[in-house]
């Protein structure tokens, strides 16, 4: 028996609480972020894959598992599969009228996710953050935010290793008079703006905060505003990837370090 997985835990919490929208959102968030093993009808042909489709309770479903051994336990043999995040599978199935059979008969998280729910998840993940320009007039300590949103942001930033170095959460008042909270990133990796904006948007969506808003801005480390952010903001240092281990150098390959003779 495999150890409890994040999807097992999310499904157990949802089952224990009954009809709880917040826990349902948390389950779908885990589903989107988890690498799933999608059972195929045949070996992949290049980039083309053909999932096995089963008819269950009058609906069509593909089979996905959050552990490879669970897929083997279900199939009883080695079977063709494709491994990809749940968000990619939802996007692939959107509009096809096909649901997900998750860990059928082999795990506590065994459940049927109907086609309508797959379409909803794909739609949520495909939405892009709104872009607009406003001029900040005052930065302050963060305004009150729901604890569930703070936890969601913390989890998202913890998984954004290497996309930025630091994030600052502050309150903001704009020249237009609008007030809210702002998340400012510094030391952002090239082309990481979209991924970070999307991560913040998903934190809002899956935390279940109705009409939640959180502005995002990207600053250079030497921007004068960073000094203010350091003074009034809540600072979060994002994890950084481990540096690659240096490859062994063959003796004599470095002209400045000739091999030693013994």
CATH third-tier fold name of the largest domain:
Trna Endonuclease, Chain: A, domain 1
Summed up, the helix count is 8
Q: In which range does the helix fraction lie?
A: 25-40%
| CATH architectural designation of the largest domain | 3-Layer(aba) Sandwich
Name of the top-level CATH class of the largest domain: Alpha Beta
Integer tally of domains:
2
- What is the C-alpha radius of gyration, as a whole number of Å? 23 Å
Question: Would you kindly provide a written description of the structure presented here, covering whatever features stand out?
Answer:
The chain has 262 residues and is α+β, with helices and mostly antiparallel strands. The chain folds into 2 domains: 6-126, Uncharacterised protein PF11572, DUF3234 (Trna Endonuclease, Chain: A, domain 1, 3-Layer(aba) Sandwich); 136-237, Alpha-Beta Plaits (2-Layer Sandwich), CATH 3.30.70. The chain is built from 8 helices and 11 strands. It has helices spanning 6-17, 21-33, 68-75, 86-93, 115-126, 147-158, 193-207, 225-232, and strands at 35-39, 53-56, 59-65, 81-85, 98-102, 111-113, 136-140, 166-174, 179-186, 215-219, 234-237. Strands 1, 2, 3, 4, 5 and 6 form a 6-stranded mixed β-sheet that branches. Strands 7, 8, 9, 10 and 11 form a 5-stranded mixed β-sheet that branches. A hairpin with an 8-residue loop joins strand 5 and strand 6 (111-113). Helix 2 (21-33) packs across helix 4 (86-93). The model is unreliable at 255-262 (pLDDT under 50).
